[in-house]
Specification:
By secondary structure, the protein is of the alpha+beta class. It has two domains: about 70 residues; about 70 residues, Pleckstrin-homology domain (PH domain)/Phosphotyrosine-binding domain (PTB) (PH-domain like, Roll), CATH 2.30.29.30. The protein is about 45% helix and about 25% strand. The protein has four helices and eight strands. The strands form two sheets. A four-stranded antiparallel beta sheet has the order 1-2-3-4. Strand 5 and strand 6 form a beta hairpin. The longest helix has 23 residues. The radius of gyration is 18 Å and the shape is elongated. About 15% of the residues are buried. Keywords: Membrane, Transmembrane, Transmembrane helix.
Length: about 160
């Protein structure tokens, strides 16, 4: 069983390195998503509360890597070649897959966008820039063929 946990730790470490690489390549960073870290800590606390947390080094390393990865994965944004999104199962999206964008002006200099992919998935990104600047950024990364709409302003 220890070799199973060790293999999981190695895979999780490789994922953390992959995720760290794409975080380092962000050219336009979004707002940090604290919710990912909060949910990770809640899962770990519930495991330790229910005595699921076995006192083995491999499981402790797994939970440490899980916390590290959730800290790293907090930022979303635009990289040179790919869109960086938040999530354990899909970390990057090719720009060619995005077909529509909806930009919403939130509060003053904050805005968000919902990007719709050709496969039906949607990705939510939030930025500390005004909506007109975000639209220019979207045009630069997504190209002129992507339909960009502006939504209602939220106060």
């Amino acid at each position: 069983m220890e070799s199973f946990y060790l293999a999981i730790d190695v895979l999780f470490f490789m994922y953390a390195c992959y995720s760290w690489y794409y975080q380092a390549s962000l050219e336009v960073k979004g707002v940090y998503r604290r919710s990912l870290l909060i949910w990770t800590l809640l899962v770990i606390m519930s495991c330790s509360y229910a005595d699921i947390l076995v006192n083995t080094t491999e499981i402790r390393i797994f939970f440490a890597l899980m916390i590290l990865t959730s800290i790293i994965d907090g930022y979303t944004g635009f990289g040179a070649k790919r869109l960086v999104v938040s999530g354990f199962f899909r970390r990057t999206v090719k720009y060619e897959l995005i077909q529509k964008a909806l930009v919403v002006n939130l509060f003053g200099e904050e805005s968000s966008c919902i990007l719709s992919a050709k496969d039906g998935r949607q990705y939510y990104l939030r930025f500390k820039i005004a909506a007109p600047s975000l639209i220019q950024t979207l045009r630069r990364y997504l190209g002129p063929d992507v339909e960009i709409k502006t939504g209602p302003t939220l106060l």
